[in-house]
Amino acid sequence: MNKNLAFGLIAAAMIVAPTTAFAGDSASRQEINQSATAIGNGSSVSQQAKQTSIQEQRGARPGDRQRSNQLINQDGVAIDGGRVEQRATDFNRQQQFKRDFRLRR
Q1: Residue 3: its pLDDT value, please?
Q2: Which pLDDT tens digit goes with each residue over 71-100?
Q3: In terms of C-beta density within 10 A (0-12 exposed, 13-18 middle, 19 or more buried), how is residue 21 classed?
Q4: pTM of the entire structure?
Q5: Judging by beta carbons within 10 Å of its beta carbon (0-12, 13-18, 19+), is residue 30 exposed, middle or buried?
Q6: Among 33, 105, 38, 30, which Cα is nearest to 76's?
Q7: CB 52, CB 91: distance < 8 Å
Q8: Quick one: three-class SS letters along the chain?
Q9: I need a labelling partner for 88 at 20 to 30 A (CA). Which of 20, 69, 71, 101 fits?
Q10: Are the beta carbons of 15 and 34 closer than 8 angstroms?
């Protein structure tokens, strides 16, 4: 198997795997790493990354937590013809809805 392909598959698995959340906790971890090199005539590097994390916690108790870690790293080198374009977007939305502790009759 191609080493680059194997590394890409491992990295992709790590990107979508959420971190362990304990009782009352909600956690999400996303990471994108990109690297590119273009050397020679008409060189061009274009990288784009987008991360979205949406967490919703219902029945939250005091002390319950939500965590989200997002990281994007991009590297690009273009020589001779040059031209490097990089775009990155992070979006994170977290909502907690408190539990109703009133007594019901």
Answers
A1: 45
A2: 999 999 999 999 899 999 999 998 888 866
A3: middle
A4: 0.57
A5: buried
A6: 38
A7: yes
A8: CCHHHHHHHHHHHHHHCCCCCCCCEEEEEEEEEEEEEEEECCCCEEEEEEEEEEEEEEEECCCCEEEEEEEEEEEEEEEECCCEEEEEEEEEEEEEEECCCCCCC
A9: 20
A10: no
* Six token digits for residue 88: 């990155």
| Stated length of the chain | 105
- Counting beta carbons within 10 angstroms of the beta carbon of residue 26, is it exposed (0 to 12), middle (13 to 18) or buried (19 or more)? buried
Confidence of residue 6 (pLDDT cuts 50, 70, 90): very low
